[in-house]
Amino acid sequence: MKINQNIILTYKDLIFLFLFCWFSFFAPWVEWSWHQRFLGIFLILLVFILIIRKNLLIFVFCREEVPFWFFYLFYLAGLVNPIDSQIANYYFWSFVFPIPILYFSAKIFFEKENCLNLIRVICIIAFFVLIFGVIEFITKQSLISNISPLHLYYDAFVGRRMISTQAHPTCLGTYFLACFPFGLFLYLVEKNKILKLSAIIYMIGIFIGLIFSFSRGVLIGLFFVLLFFTNFMKKKRLLTYLLILLVVIIIFSSFLAKIAIADFWRYSLSNLLTEWIYVKKFIRVSAVFNILKDHPIFGLGFGHYRVMFNYYLPNHPFNMYDDKVADLMYVTLLAETGLIGFTGFFLYLFFLFRRVIKKIYSVFESNQKILLICFFSSFVGIMFSFLTYDGLYWITPNYLFWSYAGVLSSLSTRAEGKINKDG
User: Fold this and answer.
1) Which domain covers residue 293, as residue numbers?
2) Residue 93 lies inside a defined structural domain of this protein
3) At how many degrees (to 10) do helices 395-412 and 329-362 cross?
4) Domain total for the chain?
5) Nearest CA-CA partner of 325 in 299, 345, 305, 343
6) Roughly what angle, to the nearest 10 degrees, separates helices 169-189 and 216-232?
7) Taking phi first (over 0 means left), then psi (-120 to 50 degrees means alpha), and beta for anything else, what does residue 214 get?
8) Could you give the maximum distance between any two Cα atoms of the chain, in Å?
9) Neighbours of 81 (CB within 10 A)
């Protein structure tokens, strides 16, 4: 597969960009009724395309997607025995029901042959999100907070952590983390020097936005993005510069923390060495052991870690509503869907990773390999950022995770050579 630089954008590109624009600008703060409309439109589009292009059904029901369908079936364990069915149903319709729609829409509508123009537009979209964030951070004013009562965290973080169009600074950081490798792709693929310079400016801007989200988990994710990218691109010497950069960030943040600039204290050495932040995490995840004793197979039910937090940790020191979660997505998944949901999730990821890695080492066309490595690095970075919050229970990280999983499935599928997506 060679990248076509002549085609502008196909109808599939426009559908994929519609999805990307949705969680970039609107999904985090609009009312639930708009989410229903959006998912309805995308489901109709997906079904319509599959009806008129029946040859595409193999991308949904091929042997390689058997682990996905088993995972999704097992993941529904979160609906088996919830204490509060209303909460479980809310989490299901918000974060679980959309999974196959996002996954297969991304797999079918992402056009590999025209990916250069598609990535260019995605970078422009991400840069607009950055611009909104910079203006909001400097002026301490946000248009979204004025028009949406659902922008709940704006007042808590305004002027301290960049939030832009997203629901929370950590979600914004994850968004920038997912978009950062596209700058690397454009820098390596673009032939025009001005476009290469634009890619460098883009990466610097996205990196600054990522830092100003002040999310330690996102910073961990960035490290693994660059670790995977440099490893697969055989640029391991760049890791030395990466480690130097991380040390500089910590030293610089430690200095700025002393003069109370924004939330740089979150990256400071004194904060990173504070015992309480690790003890706090351990206390919050420790509930999972007692939960599994009572609900080992199917778990508590979607959204129930918070519901049962006081029951399983009666002597906990937390009073705030936001503290009564594991703040670690994989522990939450284990507690709420049990061993069956947890096993299905990681078996699916195992088979997906195996396919992707095999494809990376078997592809000889340079641009295709770079594209696959960029998406894979982004996906891994998102996964590592979930070590510090329940990312799949936030709209944008959830949509990014499953959309990128669909793109990775498309780029690594063995059916690629047998079937033309355009019929």
Assistant:
1) 11-417
2) yes
3) 30
4) 1
5) 305
6) 20
7) left
8) 64
9) 16
In a domain, 18, yes or no: yes
Decide if pLDDT at 48 tops 50: yes
pLDDT the model gives residue 417: 42
Whether the model pTM is above 0.90: yes
DSSP-based three-state secondary structure for 94: helix
- Residue 33 banded pLDDT, cuts 50, 70, 90: confident
Q: Mean pLDDT, the chain, as a whole number?
A: 89
At position 296, the amino acid (one-letter code) is: P
Residue that is written with structure tokens 């409309």 in the block = 37
**pLDDT per position as a tens digit, 148-197:** 665 677 878 888 899 999 989 999 999 999 999 999 999 999 999 999 99
Q: Judging by beta carbons within 10 Å of its beta carbon (0-12, 13-18, 19+), is residue 302 exposed, middle or buried?
A: buried
Cα 167 to chain centroid, rounded: 14
pLDDT tens, 54-76? 888 888 988 999 999 999 999 99
> Quick one: pLDDT at residue 8?
67
pLDDT at 366 over 70: yes
The whole-number average pLDDT for the span 273-284 is 86
Residue 3 has pLDDT above 60, yes or no: no
Q: Is residue 5 part of a domain?
A: no
**Residue at token pair 């960029």:** 374
In a domain, 399, yes or no: yes
Distance in angstroms (rounded) separating the CA atoms of residues 66 and 242: 38
The Cα 394–Cα 390 span in angstroms is 7
Annotate 310-333 with b (16+ C-beta within 10 A) or e (fewer). eebbeebeeeeeeebbbbbbbbbb
| Cα–Cα distance, 88 to 96 (Å, whole number) | 10
Distance CA 68, CA 410 (A): 13
Predicted local confidence at residue 147, as pLDDT = 66
- Cβ atoms of 407 and 112 closer than 8 Å: no
**Rounded CA Rg of the chain:** 21
Helix (H) or strand (E) holding 292: helix 287-294
Taking a C-beta distance cutoff of 8 angstroms, is the pair 380, 357 a contact? no
